[in-house]
Amino acid sequence: MSIRRIRTLIAVAEQGSFGLAAEAVAISQAAVSLQMKSLEDELNVVLFDRSKRPPALNAEGLELVERARETIVVYDLMMNAIPSDKIYNGELSIGAMPTTMTGVIPKVVSALRSIYPELRVHLVPNHAREQIPELERGQLDTVIVTQPPRIPDHLIYRPFAVEPLILLAPPDSPDGSVRELLKKFPFIRLPRDQWVGQLIDDWLRKQSIKVNDLMELDTIESISNMVYFNLGVTIVPAPCVLPPNPLPLKRITLGLNPPERVLGLLTRRDSSKTRLVDVLYEQLVELVETEQQNFDE
Question: Is CATH 3.20.20.480 what the domain over 163-260 is classified as, yes or no?
């Protein structure tokens, strides 16, 4: 459980609304809402009565706030007792999907290294299905993955971003609906054995859309390059963190309620690197919130 989320929960209780809590902890109201939903998902309990405006803490939420205040007191005492230069040295092994290597990973590792220069970061890019067994064996400390269909009890999954699926089309392609563009152009897809590839396939099936498959590539960057050179169209997650110099492609939403990829950190409950993973998670949440604020502006 993230200390940042616990502090935000306390701010919501003290300020009485998500909007005022956002001002108190210096983040956006949307970020407060995302943190509270993620906290509910992590604990598997509803903390707010959302039939009220603004949403109000229910009985479970109020009880958790009391425990949260006690936790923050203990946490602050513990952190004050430990020299800061002893906490964030060592090595952190991070597994990451190829689709996160051009946006999320460079920026979050850069942030970590600027704050904790003694921290050594070991990156292992690979697909989630290959990395989860490595995490379970202790070869990786944490992995950044799409939310798995099932999470074993000995692992903890903490979401930090939601990415709606969008259609990418060549910059000079004719205007048209998603359905028309998918019918007109060849389709360049993410691998079907990835969870996000299955999410895309499920959406196409539900929409009764048949595509003309051209090729299958495992990174959004390589797919985007193919689309840029007019080889076809694709459906990919809209990145929560933009890569440097994104290509000028047409980006078209899939409707009012598009399917979404949830990104998060997966960690062993008995991990010896829990505190370092917490630091990574805090930086991921802050990075995504900052990117969202910049986008909104």
Answer: no
